[in-house]
């Protein structure tokens, strides 16, 4: 998910702790998802689905699928945003590969796991947005197409997510797809509620 170019004034120490917290929250949410065999939306969801279909880890797939979008990020958002986003993506990729060796679940209800995953990822994204970064991917492409072709960014992202979950229905149990949708809704509600121009951005 991409974030419009806007940077608040933070010290390097504040940025560092925010990047660690935000990426750790996202990586934790992804642990809930992958433990249950669920997916999420946007580029992270694509990476999760591809990791299920290949022998690659989520962290590796997530890092690789984001690479082409950095070109668009430079054109649309500038170098500073692109660099910060690259760091955030790299941290989530690394933490997502490290966490399974440090964290395991004896029992995790799919409904609770989907809610926790959606909550953790949503909160992690808000932290990253506040510090001028994102987790890249489809959001950047959507903004680029909006500029160049006049397509609404929100509709582009929605279309991608619809196609992603439709593809997941051929790979995952329909019940798991349903729980995945629940987690994605929670993530988007958190972002929509806590990242509004009329309340939080630009102050």
UniProtKB/TrEMBL annotation:
Pfam families: YitT_membrane
Entry annotated with the keyword Metal-binding: no
Top-rank taxon, per record: Bacteria
Topology with respect to the bilayer: Multi-pass membrane protein
GO cellular component: plasma membrane
The keyword Glycosyltransferase belongs to this UniProt entry's keyword annotation: no
Stretches that traverse the bilayer: 56-75, 87-105, 111-129, 176-193
Keywords for this protein: Cell membrane, Membrane, Transmembrane, Transmembrane helix
Subcellular location: Cell membrane
Matching InterPro entries: UPF0750_membrane (IPR051461), YitT (IPR003740)
The name this protein goes by in its record: Transporter
Native source organism of the sequence: Roseicyclus elongatus DSM 19469
Taxonomic classification: Bacteria, Pseudomonadati, Pseudomonadota, Alphaproteobacteria, Rhodobacterales
């Amino acid at each position: 998910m991409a974030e419009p170019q806007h940077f608040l004034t933070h010290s390097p120490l504040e940025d560092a702790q925010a990047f660690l917290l935000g990426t750790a929250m996202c990586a934790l949410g992804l642990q809930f998802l992958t433990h249950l065999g669920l997916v999420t939306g946007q580029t992270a969801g694509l990476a999760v689905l591809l990791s299920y279909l290949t022998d690659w880890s989520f962290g590796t797939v997530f890092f690789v699928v984001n690479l082409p979008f950095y070109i668009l990020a430079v054109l649309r958002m500038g170098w500073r945003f692109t660099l910060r986003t690259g760091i955030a993506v790299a941290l989530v990729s690394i933490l997502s590969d490290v966490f399974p060796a440090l964290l395991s679940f004896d029992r995790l209800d799919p409904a609770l796991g989907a809610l926790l995953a959606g909550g953790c990822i949503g909160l992690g994204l808000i932290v990253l947005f506040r510090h001028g970064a994102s987790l890249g991917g489809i959001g950047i492409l959507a903004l680029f197409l909006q500029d160049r072709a006049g397509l609404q960014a929100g509709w582009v992202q929605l279309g991608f997510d619809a196609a992603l979950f439709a593809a997941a229905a051929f790979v995952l149990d329909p019940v798991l797809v349903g729980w995945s949708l629940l987690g994605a809704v929670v993530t988007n509600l958190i972002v929509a509620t806590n990242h509004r121009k009329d309340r939080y951005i630009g102050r």
